Request: fold
Amino acid sequence: MSTIVYAARRIVTMNPNNPFATHVAVRDGRILGAGTLETLRGWGRFDLDERFKDKVILPGFVEGHSHAYEGGVWKFPYVGFFERTSPDGRRSPGLKSIDEVVAALRAYEKTMPKDGSTLFAWGFDPIYFTGRRMNLGDLDKVSTERPVLVLHSNFHVLNANTPVFGKANISRHTNVHGIVKDEKGEPTGELQENTAKYLAYKAVGIELSSLLSDEPATWGFARVAQLSGVTTATDLHNTLPDSTVAAYETATGSPDFPLRLLPAFAALAMAPDEGIVRLTGLMKKNSERLRYGLVKIVTDGSIQGLSARMRWPGYYDGTPNGVWNIGPDEIDKVLLAYHRAGFQVHIHTNGDEASEVAIESVERALAAAPRWDHRHTLQHAQMADAGQFRRMKALGMCANLFANHIFYWGDIHYARTMGPERAERMDACGTALATGVPFAIHCDAPVTPIGPLFTAWCAANRLTASGRVLGAAEKISVADALRAITLGAAYTLKLDEELGSIDVGKRADLAILGDDPLTVAPEKLKDVPVWGTMVGGRIFEAPKS
Amino acid sequence: MIPFTVIGGFLGAGKTTLLNRLLAAAAGRRFAVLVNDFGALDIDGRLVAAHGGDTVALANGCLCCTIGDSLIETLLKLLERPERFDHIVVEASGVADPARIADIAVLEPQLERDGVIVVVDAAEVQARAADRRVGDTVLRQIKAADLLVLNKIDLADEPALVHDWLSARAPAPILEARQAEVPIDLLFGLDRRGAAGGKVDEGFRSWSYAWSDPVGRAALMAMLSDTKDVLRAKGIVRFADAPDRRSIVHMVGRRIDVSDGGPWIDDESRLVLLGPKPVLGSLERE
Reply:
């Protein structure tokens, strides 16, 4: 029963009774206390560890909405617009034109064996490019021998080269939705619908879902989370096939695994009565680092993918309303089944009509089966307005807002999808705070990189990629933003009694930072360096880039 | 190639009832049916040959599968099974665009796109279409149909008005039904025995034509698309503009596909039409 006391430049505890400390005592993987060296002496013998004496310590960050695919995508080259860090701490530079993407892919192609195997790349993000779109000819410059596939950063659109189309039998005569064609009727190389994409993957022998969720991918996810100070992260939509469950169990079974992993069961994978049995069975496997129990329902699509369900007046540029992934009546049925069985349900809603339907569905579930402290959470709720937040509050719901969207897509929302007024109040952290809705903020990795300090920076500064301040009235303070990435997120996962603050009895999960996020200028918050983490008392130093 | 049919329609329109009728009437043909939820299917326990988690094999050779999270994955897994099926039918989810699902059969070489059949609840459809949350979804489904089944016609206050309302919004022919009672062969095609022609069933008739001279492509297409009550057609035709080729003509509702079937080796063109009885009588005279 050894005790270690860690000295730090400052410890920000998120415990209002004891908000700041200089020392934290850890015993048996838990917080024994935080305070000064003097106040901690009463616990008896300890070893003093001063390696963090110039570091600032916060509770380990909690990422309430991410996907473990983030760990798998790094098996493949990244070709996005923004710089991004891989699990081993290597930085991939942002690529600023089609030519730069092609050049990077050509260089990568030369490192591959000459066996005709498929080159798959991800993260392509052309929305800030001017001029033409990427086409077959561009990727044919990478190779005309091997299939080349480039997945866009939205994970929705796929570009391919001629060998892919050859193998998938796609030509000018293929009349299928989502095969983009030019004015002469020739396919451009872009695939925009699941059917066409899936069959293209199949034709070139790529099984993306299993490649992205095996054991190495799970480790990659934990490492990339660790780099950004995250100690607990959700895998917030997974059908949890046996292969994934096995990978999660093996990976999290290692004491070196630097993350508490919370998979959320994809409720639409099977009928609710079967799903409840499946999930209840999985929960028996729960351990310190692997927690089943969350349920996820996806109601609509994405705003930038033009598939979000919006209330009147709909898309700013006149695009027709998006599509339901599951109809309003079905949402009621699925939600009520899991609600009755006592589960907490996380409901993906991007558009405000989707949020409205979800809120009303929770209201009906509560009328049918009253329940306290359910904490059903709207995930994204990007377009929710003040009235919807007031209803969420009244019903005991939480929100997890997609603050990173302000930076990555805010300019697009302002100009094309939502228009100025609704874009200025998107991801309304200020309104959540004012109405008292418990809330978190998130990255939705791999859609945007995992990095809670960056996400907090977005919520505090609301700057878009072009530098526009989007909705100054919805800004929150750095202190509130830091709470949202720790205790706030833990609350939305019903783990706030165990995680999220540095307080007696809680898990010794810490984010160890190179600077003090409360004293740096708010616009520098994203640049605060992360030294590493502690998970259950074990120290995990981030690799240096 | 296996014919592939998608059954679309909003929740409660009668898709499952239609599938139950199909499974009951499937004698002689092996259907594989992909559904969202077994629970809703009326599978007679005595007819179940094997139950394997997400599949139920029936004694008549048919197989039911639950779709789970990914329709396309479930479908491709089905195609990997050793047993062959005569026809694959997918029940689209209540909010899906069934035409997008039918695209799978355009891209997957083992499948032949058959029809997109959309079932509509005659008593509810107008209210659904006016609902601000689901109206656009309902109309999208209706427009996607190759063939519409206007179900529960007996429950509509003014059946003729609903029929007119629907035909003003959708280009597909409309088949009225109660409790999804429709001639199964009309929707899913005749089996090999039935293709001989002249078969008479309750409420519909098939008619086969054979002729030796090449026929004008435009003329035949016009005839097929103008006679709105021919609901299915299948045949091997020698077109005047391609006299050396076998052109396979396949029509379901409003959709006509013509594909190349190799060099012309036959004695005569043959075409089988299916539709309600009285109309075909007049077609014969033409």
Notes: Chain A touches chain B at residues 168-170, 174-178, 193-196, 198-199, 202, 239, 266, 268-271, 273, 309, 312, 320-321, 323-330, 353, 357 (CB under 8 Å). Chain A has a mean pLDDT of 96.
